[in-house]
Specification:
The protein has 173 residues and is mainly beta. It has one helix and 13 strands. The two termini are 12 Å apart. The model has no long low-confidence stretch (mean pLDDT 94).
Length: 173
């Protein structure tokens, strides 16, 4: 999440917020990713259920509109689109044995993020293990495919305040 967050930053995370309302675009979310790991990930929510989503020439488009991203370290060096009920990166679909992609029956439209699924990205786009590698994060349920298919999915909480080190204290946006 560089430049927004640095290694060893200490954050406050609201673990109750997503029980009362849906996560929002731009939220910095702590969650267990759909890959084998010993710790939660922290990423920015870039795409939500129902969104059309693409990355072209380093620019993110959500629902046909360019997303302004003053917080990123550098633009993505890859193209991506959601189509054919899959995530396509540089012309190749993510594989079901390594990425969390729901079965076609769970998609409301094959060119939009399915209900219950989220597209998460680190702010250091080209050095981030995020949705362009492992597919969708999920708010609830079990992972649909990938390395830990069938394991519990969910969001741990919304990171809202960086409070250590003292010279970097701020509300996260």
């Amino acid at each position: 999440m560089e430049n927004t967050l640095q290694v060893h930053d200490v954050l406050l995370v609201n673990e109750f917020e997503y029980r009362f309302h849906q996560p929002q675009h731009g939220d910095i979310v702590v969650f267990p990713p759909p890959v084998v790991t010993t710790s939660d990930f922290i990423k920015r929510l870039i795409g939500a259920p129902g969104d059309q989503f693409a990355i072209r020439h380093g620019i993110i488009f959500r629902n046909g509109q360019e997303v302004k991203e003053p917080y990123i370290k550098e633009k993505p060096a890859y193209d991506l689109e959601i189509k054919n009920c899959s995530i396509i990166v540089d012309g190749q679909p993510l594989l079901l044995d390594s990425a969390n992609i729901p079965p076609k029956s769970q998609w409301q439209a094959c060119d939009r993020i399915p209900n219950g699924y989220y597209f998460m990205m680190g702010d250091n786009r080209n050095n981030s293990e995020d949705s362009h590698i492992w597919g969708f994060a999920q708010l609830h349920g079990e992972f649909a495919s990938g390395q830990i298919k069938g394991h519990k999915a969910g969001f741990t909480g919304h990171a809202f305040l960086l409070f250590w080190p003292l010279d970097r204290i701020r509300i996260l946006k």
